[in-house]
Amino acid sequence: MEMVHVLDHPLLQHKLSILRDENTGVKEFREIVGEVATLMCYEATRDLPLQNVPVQTPVAQAITRQIAGKKLAIVPVLRAGLGMVEGILTLIPSAKVGHIGLFRDPETLQPVKYYCKMPSDIAERDVIILDPMLATGGSAAAAIGFVKEYGVKNIKLMNVLAAPEGIARVHQEHPTVEIYVAAVDEKLNEHGYIVPGLGDAGDRIFGTK
Ligand code: PRP
Ligand code: URA
Fold this sequence. Notes:
Blueprint: E1 4-6, H1 10-20, H2 26-44, E2 50-56, E3 61-67, E4 72-78, H3 85-89, E5 96-97, E6 99-104, E7 111-117, E8 126-130, E9 133-134, H4 138-149, E10 155-162, H5 164-173, E11 178-184, E12 187-188, E13 194-195, H6 201-206
Parallel strand pairs: 1-11, 4-5, 4-6, 4-8, 8-10, 9-10, 10-11
Antiparallel strand pairs: 2-3, 6-7, 12-13
Helix pairs in contact: 1-2
The chain binds 1-O-pyrophosphono-5-O-phosphono-alpha-D-ribofuranose and uracil.
């Protein structure tokens, strides 16, 4: 099974180009992060199981296909992951939403947890963790670990941009987690920023720079 899905659809690549541009302002950046999440959601849900359901159309009885099986939850990693939530709910309005608050210590680059609230039935759901940036992978690996503690079996990770280091770390610590990204960049710089990247995703979504 392919564990890293690089989604190279032209619409995604075009929108990613706008996100990377330092001249893109907060309003447009926020809107496009949401649109990117919607497009990525389309691909990340491609393997959802279907079941046959009879439906009476205006013309005849039909055997149609509807999504079967477990329900979904999405878990944004605060803050920047919040920017992806609405975009996912556009396609899956009944998904429940958990939240994990993590920030990356600027000196040690280690993730620091400050909040965690999950839907009560999270263990029965498939989970997609949302965070625009997968840099060292520390935040994603920690977030996946927290979700696993709740008993969740099927976890996917959705990032807009990743560094090779982050992908390697998630693979090593959580080998069964599939990763969905719009692009894998070249490297991290000495401050742990993705190069060329798009800067600080949280600051650009919320205008806190
Ligand atoms: C950013 C980003 C990820 C993390 C990625 O969050 O949204 O959560 O850094 O870095 P890592 O892969 O090296 O752990 P940040 O710490 O800037 O917090 P914020 O979303 O609150 O701005
Ligand atoms: N977090 C961000 O927001 N951007 C990066 O490039 C790395 C971590």
